Structure prediction request, 107 residues.
Amino acid sequence: RDIIQKEINNSLEILNNYLEYNKLIVSKEEIDLNVLLLDIKKSMKEYLKEKNINLKVTMMDDDIYLDADYNKLRQVFLNIIKNSIEAISLEGIINMDVNINGKNMVK
Prediction:
């Protein structure tokens, strides 16, 4: 599987374990992945500019809906991006591509 899909699944598993441990409530609702990614890109804009890093998000033309907790999934993506920023020494590009392969989201 794609690395981002693995990271999302791992993060969701961590969240589920944390939920069981601390009795947190995960508020699942139907969310549009494209809207979430645009929100993340907008919120990271100044930080990325400061670090001289470009976040390139390539989405499908079709809407992609997930049954998920918007805020928690947003935090998962923010953590992945922040880790990517820390891995880049001077300047660079972080690419996020969203594609659908059958019933699976990839990349």
